[in-house]
Specification:
The structure is a single chain. By secondary structure, this protein is of the alpha+beta class. Helix 4 crosses helix 6.
Length: about 425
Amino acid sequence: MTLTNSADSDIDAGTVRAAVEAFCDRNWDLDLTVEQWWRLLAEARYSHPMLPESAGGLGYGMDQSALVSLVLAERGVLGPPGGLGRMLAAPTIAFHGTPEQIDRYVPEILDGRVGWCQLFSEPNAGSDLASLQCRAERDGDEWVITGQKVWTSGGQVSDMGMLLARTDPDQPKHSGISWFAFDMDQPGVDVRPLTEMTGRALFNEVFIDEARVAGSALIGGLNNGWRVGNTTLMVERASLGSSGRKPPELIPGPKGGVLDARVGDFVDRSGAAAMSGVPPLGVDMWWWLVDMARKNGSITSKVLRDDLVRLYGLIEINRLSIQRAKGGSSSAAAPNIAKLTMSELNRSFRDIGMRVVGADGMLMGESDGQSGGHIAELALFSPAPSIYGGTDQVQRNIIGERVLGLPREPGPARDTPFSQLPKN
């Protein structure tokens, strides 16, 4: 799958850097509102430069797109809208949508007017997503949706959802599914946050009771949702496993509550991000741990130094693997390997971080301990990456069956109608 214009992906790095720096010089102003800044980024096609030009991007390859993010981070400006709309919905719609659907949905994602969530997993359809039971029943020009979704990241602040629903239970389970652009703000949609060990509520459960979606919001064709959804999942796994320096991001859409805020409230005049939080997993966070270890003297431990070097090696292996994927020479398992590496990075940063800060790793308050509570939160959150976006076990199954050609797990024949399958 490619979302770029190959002719444009060969633009040299110097040209890309100069263009982004010139854009920042012309437009960055601490007194702009977030909405105004995001509109400028979208108009310059820097919100998602990997998208084709027909979908509001520049047709850049991964190298050029990463460089855009790097330059925005170096210049200390606010990044494009965060969330799953730009990460997942925009590429999926750009690849599978009609020109009318692209024009309808993608621009308001890129300029942050609308936030999206992902309505895929269900209580009985997580690792085996194709067994989902959320129903979509045709009613004239509309579809009536009934079912339950769970682990919906950002559902409570989203305006739209990427919905997988079963449109034909008499087809095999992978064939009778469709992908919809689903309005979250309507009767029959109940979003309930799920509080995690961290005390935050990133995930939600969503109950849908006879909500409606227009036929024009069906993306990629009737009963073709498994193929469309796999595009979404491929982009997700590659995105979750990617690394590199990025500018700070905010929640898009009116529910995020930041559209009218000053961009200067989120970055300071030195260009450093004023937002709280530990650096994202990668070399910046590695140096953050090294600096703490130097300050508290734990760097003198030979075992800790060995483990820090081993962690640095894992970061570099991930970076080089991504570079190889950018060059088109990686295997079909690259997104799954990237997802597995991300899980391992979380665990490694957790374990080494706890050893660096010692007993302070039990403190969660932002004013507590050496890390401001970040290591404790990382430790509590660390099991999640091996579950969301497809469990580590699912990734290994995919690599084994689809890439290495190992035998599939036993089960009913693949052409068995979903209505005849036992329901878990």
